Amino acid sequence: MTNHDEKPSGSRKFLFRALDVIEWVGNKLPSPLLLFTLLAFIVILSSAVFSGASVTNPTSGETIAVNNLFTIEGLQYIFQNAVDNFIGFAPLGAVLVTMLGIGLAEQTGLVHASLKGTVFSVPSKLLTAALVFAGAMSSIAVNAGYVVLPPLGAALFLGLGRHPLAGLTAAFAGVSGGFGANLFLTSTDAILAELTADAAATIDEAYAETIAVSMNWFFAAASIVLVTVVGTWVTNKIVEPRLGKYEGDNAEEEMDALSQQEKKGLLYAGISFLVTALVMVYLSFGPLRGDGNYLESPFFDSLVFVIFILFFVPGLIYGITTKVIQNDKDLTQFLGKTMASMSGYIALAFTAGQFIAYFGETNMGTVIAINGAEFLSNTGFDGFGLIIVFILITMGINFFIGSSSAKWVILAPVFVPIMMNLGYSPEFTTVIYRLSDSVTNIITPLLLYFPMIIAFAQRYDKKIGIGTLISMMIPYSVAFLVSWVVLLFVWMLLGIPVGPGADIYY
Predict the structure, then answer these.
(1) Model pTM?
(2) Is the model more confident about 289 or about 41?
(3) What GO molecular functions are on record for this protein (predicted)?
(4) Radius of gyration (Cα) for the chain, nearest Å?
């Protein structure tokens, strides 16, 4: 897949060769659909091998044992839950519902016209940074950024005559690698703050009551700058030069200027988007506000449907204005084409859903995570040494448990008390966890949205495999890790609070 325009020299030559090896090895693996099928069988066999292994949950004191699926009961579970595992695959519903809205905007020509307007009005040098920045900021909409930004980034880069996969990876790096950064508070802040407070209460109940949702706000806001700068540099200096010139089927397409009809369509679509957005704002503070925390309101629980509406309405208005949609049959046909384009992802979701469900049912991920936490507590490290080990263990566990909150449920009761006893605050411990969790999200196939990113990439290169995607994302992962650790230690040396009233030291 790699197609270098020119031979790199020096350190980049060595880096490109290393990434080529990773890509080659990774692409020797079966197709993602078959790979998840094989992984599902491996999980079943592994559950039999490690049956009987158990750990004690540090939160509840409950004994958790590896559940053997290679039994009659396990076979019954596999058959009885096959459909539920498919339907319950977390990204499936979100992806399909969101893509109905995005697909209509794409089918009617709204996306293409919007991209043309962007290409002709925004300096191209700023687009990479804007894409990475938007990806990192998208965590305010929970996981919606995974669905919306990578395909739009690819289309935008293609419109500029750049490699579409570079746009896709830049957006993916921002969304996933930058998940721990944001200028605003998100639902993740609320969840992690609650878990951190529960863990801190085992040492100091009074202090635990002072832990706020904004506990990591300062560091997260500064991290937005880091993620944007580093992600842009990696895209422009490593990923895109390595990819070379794009030579796909639509590589020669040129963007002409917007026609009068397109301009009129964009005007009415823009007005409809603004009106729809204002309605959504009203709903978020009105009927969908709820009685509790705003970040846990019915509105935030409905963000997938909100995004669907925000794309669907302007797409519909654009189609009607440009006379692409003249009746209900045209609308139905466009929506059908969108779902047809997702058929490969739907098939992939079936096998991935089985694998994820089996892995969760066996409890192997939980056993691995708790053992990793116990290993850290027994290392005898303190200070910087402990922080580095903490980061490495969290990064490793991230390959087995993708959910940020699920990992912190297990790790917080171990890490937070240890760090408090060493003089580090629970808020600072959470910062370390969040950056460690973010940097390996983009290189683990167990990330729930990883198969979807591959499906998006295959629109531009049908032969792309897991190895290709991982080889493109590793430079981001390494660069984020190194720069974030440097920022963390500088933060410590300067003694800057990680959030309002949240000092580094306990």
Answers:
(1) 0.76
(2) 41
(3) secondary active p-aminobenzoyl-glutamate transmembrane transporter activity
(4) 23
